[in-house]
Amino acid sequence: MYIPQHFAEHDQTEILRFIAANAFGTLVTVENGVPFASHIPFLLEQGDTLTLSGHLAKANPQWQHLTANPQVLAMFQGAHAYVSPTWYEGAGVPTWNYTAVHVYGTVRVIHDTAWLQAQVESLSHCYEGDTPNAWIPSYPAKMLEAIVGFEITIESLQAKYKLSQNRSAADQHNVRQALEASSGENERGVAALMAKHQE
């Protein structure tokens, strides 16, 4: 990912928080020179090594790409918003403020039923939470045979927080105010990130 220095985020704690908060990501592989992507939820594990886990439908050919070439990219996107040059005190052009993280790593494909059961249980618990009516997965082995698991050992993280850091303090203030006044959730999310990073 192209990351000018003033947009680079290096704080690993913040980057991992970002992944966990935006865990519906994009798994990218290349098969015979052609990119292939799946949009799926991931689980981030922060043990001795950092890993991302997930699963794919067995009917999805991407799991075979993982077997053939274990080098993968997972992409996560956060809040994003259009920025008008009319919000600047000086000259400018239309742009987009956004947050994104790219994860590179080596993947292993997993067919083990016990692992798959644990993975879907963890994923369900993550999104169902501890509410009284939380759904608890109970899959027969035959259903688990319809999916293929994977675990990515994270080797590098790239994070880009493009939040008008290249503009003057006045321009940053104006952009933030305009986004805060928006009715859009993404716009207000970018404004909140700008406020946090300008502290």
UniProtKB/TrEMBL annotation:
Query: Which InterPro entries does the UniProt record give?
Result: Split_barrel_FMN-bd, TR_PAI2-type
Q: Where is this region: Disordered?
A: 179-199
Q: Which Pfam families match?
A: FMN_bind_2 (PF04299)
Listed Gene3D superfamilies: Electron Transport, Fmn-binding Protein, Chain A (2.30.110.10)
What is the protein's given name?
FMN-binding negative transcriptional regulator
Q: Tell me the organism's taxonomic lineage.
A: Bacteria, Pseudomonadati, Pseudomonadota, Gammaproteobacteria, Thiotrichales
